[in-house]
């Protein structure tokens, strides 16, 4: 259903004759986000817990390539064929995805195992779980750190680059490059270590990188690498964090994995946006790099605390079982 809506919306964008219809269809394209939760559930239901975290890590490498290559590909299409060409390509890719899903995807659990009835009640069951909150808060604060960077970097460092958007885009690309590296490391090692340990390592990497950046900024080090180098650790830490945290969320209730994935994704996105908005109140008044690093470090530190909480909850649960 989500892919079908995306295809129709992409065609609508390509054929739109005014801004109103264009924005309507652009909003409809967001339905494709549901596929993220479906993909997570499919990986979880066909794998063990640690193996699922490893597979999600490898999958995240591919997911991170899209925002890196997409703007370049879209810009080329725009120059060669006009802006509508990008939406034609979206529709074609969506149709290919739909055909692949119809041919290959099958139901994994029996229908009798699916939850029925009031979905608000299932949300209540998830929200009453300390494990769900620990992993979701870790993701929210981690994404919040990224959002603070995305919103604050142009304000804090834009003038240093002479106002060049090309240079800014290149250096900001270091963060998704770090995410690819972190996701690869998650794929490589998540199957061998506990989820809580992966979370803690990921958050420590981010905090240490941002602490170095904060120190350099307070020493008035103005070189662009002194800013973006430490920020690269945001991507590395998030690349390690997201596969483990998503796997933890999906494992709260096996029969509610899909609901958990969707609810956690919504809470993570909304929480990250709220965190970035609050940080923006301080950045607008100052715009100094040390303030930006301070805001990011606070968010990353709270994510680290949530990671320790997740590890503790998992440890306590394993003790109760044994």
From TrEMBL:
In its keyword annotation, does this UniProt entry include Magnesium?
no
The highest taxon in the source lineage is: Bacteria
Q: Which PROSITE patterns match?
A: MFS
- Listed InterPro entries: MFS (IPR011701), MFS_dom (IPR020846), MFS_Efflux_Transporters (IPR050189), MFS_trans_sf (IPR036259)
Keyword set for this entry?
Cell membrane, Membrane, Transmembrane, Transmembrane helix
Q: Does the keyword Translocase apply?
A: no
**Segments crossing the lipid bilayer:** 85-105, 132-156, 168-187, 194-219, 225-244, 256-284, 290-313
**Where does it primarily localize?**
membrane
Q: How does it sit in the membrane?
A: Multi-pass membrane protein
Location of the Major facilitator superfamily (MFS) profile domain: 1-318
Pfam families recorded for this chain?
MFS_1
Q: Where in the cell is it found?
A: Cell membrane
Protein name, per record: MFS family arabinose efflux permease
| Naturally occurring in which organism (per UniProt) | Rhizobium mongolense
């Amino acid at each position: 259903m989500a892919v079908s809506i995306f295809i129709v919306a992409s065609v609508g964008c390509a054929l739109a004759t005014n801004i109103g219809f264009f924005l309507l269809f652009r909003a409809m394209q967001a339905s494709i986000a549901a596929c993220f939760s479906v993909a997570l559930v499919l990986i979880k239901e066909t794998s063990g817990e640690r193996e699922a975290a490893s597979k999600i890590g490898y999958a995240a490498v591919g997911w991170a390539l899209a925002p890196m290559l997409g703007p370049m590909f879209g810009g080329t299409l725009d120059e060669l064929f006009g802006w509508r060409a990008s939406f034609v390509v979206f529709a074609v890719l969506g149709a290919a995805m739909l055909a692949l899903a119809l041919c290959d995807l099958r139901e994994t659990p029996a229908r009798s195992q699916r939850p029925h009835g009031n979905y608000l009640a299932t949300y209540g069951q998830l929200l009453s779980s300390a494990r769900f909150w620990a992993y979701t808060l870790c993701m929210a604060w981690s994404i919040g750190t990224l959002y603070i960077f995305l919103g604050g970097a142009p304000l804090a460092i834009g003038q240093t680059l002479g106002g060049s958007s090309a240079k800014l885009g290149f250096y900001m690309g270091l963060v998704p490059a770090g995410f690819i590296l972190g996701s690869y490391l998650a794929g490589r090692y998540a199957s061998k270590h506990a989820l809580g340990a992966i979370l803690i390592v990921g958050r420590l990497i981010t905090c240490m990188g941002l602490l170095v950046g904060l120190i350099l900024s307070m020493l008035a080090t103005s070189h662009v690498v002194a800013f973006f180098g430490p920020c690269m650790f945001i991507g590395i830490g998030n690349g390690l964090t997201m596969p483990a945290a998503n796997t933890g969320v999906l494992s709260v209730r096996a029969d509610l994995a899909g609901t958990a994935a969707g609810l956690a994704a919504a809470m993570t996105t909304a929480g990250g946006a709220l965190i970035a908005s609050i940080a923006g109140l301080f950045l607008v008044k100052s715009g100094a790099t040390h303030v930006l690093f301070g805001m990011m470090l606070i968010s990353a530190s709270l994510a680290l605390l949530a990671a320790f909480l997740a590890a503790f909850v998992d440890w306590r649960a394993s003790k109760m079982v044994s």
